Amino acid sequence: MDRLYRTLGFAVLGWVSMAASLAGQELRLSPPSSANSAADGDASPTAQLSAKREQINAELRVAMRQAQEQQSAEAAAQPDPNVELLKQIESVVAQQQTVQNTLLDLEQQVQQLEQQIKAAQAGQLDLQPPFSLQLYDQIKDELDSLAKQEEIQAAAKASAQEAVDRAKSVADEKQQQLRLLKEQLGDARSPELETAELAARLADETLKLRRDELRVEELNAQVRSLRQTLAKLRLDALAGRVTFDRDDLSGVLAEIDKREDDLRRQLALLESELSYAEQSWMAAKARLDAQANPPRSLVEEVNAKKAKQQLIQLQIGLINQQIQRLAPLRVTWQRRYALLNESVSRQDRIAWREETAELIEQLQREQRQRQLKVDEVRSAIVAVDRQLESLGSDESDTRRWLQQRRSTLNSQIELLNDSILSIVTYERVHQKLLDELTADSGPRLREMAELAWYYTKRIWNTELYNVDDNPITVGKIVTGLLLLLFGYLASWWLSSALGNRLPRFGVAEAAAHAIQSLAFYCFLVAFALMSLKMVNVPLTVFTFLGGAIAIGVGFGSQNILNNFISGLILLAERPIKVGDLIQLDTLYGNVKHIGARSTRIRTGDNLEIIVPNSKFLENNVINLTRGDDRLRTRIVVGIAYGSPVRKALELLEQAAEQHSAVHERPKPFCIFADFGDNALIIELLFWITARTETQRRRVESEIRLSVDDLFREHGITIAFPQRDLHLDTLKPLELRILGDGEGG
């Protein structure tokens, strides 16, 4: 009898499952359409799902009754798998019904928004002028919110698509298992087959649910896009028609003043509460310090009261920061009023834009700091929760103080979250001003020119450092350099004019050149001081840079400075002057120019050699010209041994006296200098006038030619190097005359 009843029960359950499965295949949720209505009759998808749930509940009641009758007392605690699967199927269908209602609502929203967009495009807006700034801000806020939702909805849609893919994979797997089981059993029925059919049915219903959820996300994205389009149309319609008069501004400022008064009253109350909290904490801390082994409850009491004190301090700090934000908020509203009702210059727009951008960046930094603080407090709450879990049943006092501390930490999180929301609100107001400032209004070329001029002024007035409260800006440095360049050119022109006019007053050319060089440096120093004075740069700036300059001079610039000072000494003392014929080591030449760092010398070969000024003070320099052009020079002649020396002396003096360039006074004279190895050495000394080495060497050459002619005429031989070879042999040398062909 039991077997017959069980067989009939399985048959009824199978019939009901088959009917529900067929009904479920026709209830794949999709956007309502006339085609679906015609196919399904007058029943709506919601009504169909309701009927489907009734069928599932009927199946569930039959399955539960069968499970109760079939299970023994020992197996009563084990849940029947078919009952559990039917419960899950009923839950999924219930979710389908909820999602279906959401789909119907979203489709209605899509239709309404499309109608509103068509009306807005035709110029029929549901807005009546005058358009207030508050309405404009509401539409802007809506646009900002919709823009932020776009990324979130894209992620939600991607997640829904992944859920559909997973549900499809599970449904295919369950169908495969069901087909395999049917093939194994044939036409027979078994509990395993019933369970497999219900599992496949649950997977199918879950797949339908996931597809409906994906459709919901798609419609949400469509609704968001349509709302965004409508908001843009409304915003475009309001452009240039927004009113914000003086009364509206006064109302906004009055609200800000009222907010500030409320915050200050809260601040006064909190300061009194903070005093009480500090006293309470100090009393508990004193009791803790007085005990050598304090109980844990007392330790947690001190921690709880300390957390309360920190909560009040945090609240006071946040209120103070809110009060500080009200001042720039007033300025922002005043600037928005000016933009709508007054003519604001482009330079003011640029300055306001930068200030507003910096203010927004500061608010964003504060927001990130608040979020980090929230994470820190949450970590503290987790630590308190762990302590609460480890408490025993006999530690009620400790539990009470830990719970109080946890409640205080939760209050801190609430305060920080409220502060974040407040910062976001302020940031939104400033962002609106920034958007209005960045809006294009006017000729592009003119705006770019004014923008370039504004940033040039900003860079020009940028302070690099200050000395005695005197700012040293980029503009002062550039102006000083330009004035210094002008001073250099002016110094060069004035000193050159002075140097050209001095010879007219009888000043020697060399002296005029030295005065010109000294005047140039004096003029340059004077112009440098004048340029510093004109740009208001104090001379104390050089004391600030003195250490760095001293280090630079001591290492990298000592040679340059040494040559410069040497040049000044040469110009002042004038041991040599331009035009002098000098000898420096083996170098002969005329001084052509004495500069600040070096002196140029031109040799007899017309080569110009640059010599550092320090060389003239560190080495021995022979000034062959000294103060005039007279120069004593000499010619050295060697005559052969046996020649008449006195006659040779007379001939040498005669050769010198006959030359027109040799001075008669002092008279030329000769000196029998030495008995040389190969000649008798005679020196001829005489005076000439020579400004260059070439002149001196030409005179010496001509006199040597005359000496050679006179010596030839009188038979005096000019000696040349000779060597006597002495052979020391043990026997006489044998000499033979060999003919042609003989050798060996």
Strand arrangement across the biggest beta sheet: 8-7-6-5-9
> What oligomeric state do the depicted chains represent?
single chain
How many structural units, i.e. domains? 5
Mean pLDDT: 81
List keywords for this structure.
single chain, 744 residues, alpha+beta, 5 domains, 3-stranded antiparallel sheet, 69% helix, disordered N terminus
Account of the protein in words:
This protein has 744 residues and is of the alpha+beta class. The protein folds into five domains: 2-238; 246-455, no CATH class; 461-544; 559-626, Roll (SH3 type barrels); 630-713, Alpha-Beta Plaits (2-Layer Sandwich). Helix content is 69%, strand content 9%. It has helices at residues 2-25, 34-40, 45-70, 81-121, 133-185, 191-238, 246-290, 296-341, 346-389, 396-438, 444-460, 474-501, 509-534, 541-544, 546-554, 558-573, 614-618, 645-658, 693-713, and strands at residues 131-132, 242-243, 463-467, 470-473, 581-584, 587-594, 598-602, 608-612, 621-623, 630-639, 669-675, 680-689. The strands form four sheets. A five-stranded antiparallel sheet has the order 8-7-6-5-9. The chain has a three-stranded antiparallel sheet with strand order 10-12-11, with helices on one face. A two-stranded parallel sheet has the order 1-2. The longest helix is centred in the N-terminal third of the chain and has 53 residues, at 133-185. The protein is elongated. The termini are far apart.
Helix and strand arrangement:
Elements lengths: L1 H24 L8 H7 L4 H26 L10 H41 L9 E2 H53 L5 H48 L3 E2 L2 H45 L5 H46 L4 H44 L6 H43 L5 H17 L2 E5 L2 E4 H28 L7 H26 L6 H4 L1 H9 L3 H16 L7 E4 L2 E8 L3 E5 L5 E5 L1 H5 L2 E3 L6 E10 L5 H14 L10 E7 L4 E10 L3 H21 L31
Parallel strand pairs: 1-2
Antiparallel strand pairs: 3-4, 5-6, 5-9, 6-7, 7-8, 10-12, 11-12
Helix pairs in contact: 1-3, 1-6, 3-4, 4-6, 5-6, 7-8, 8-10, 9-10, 12-13, 18-19
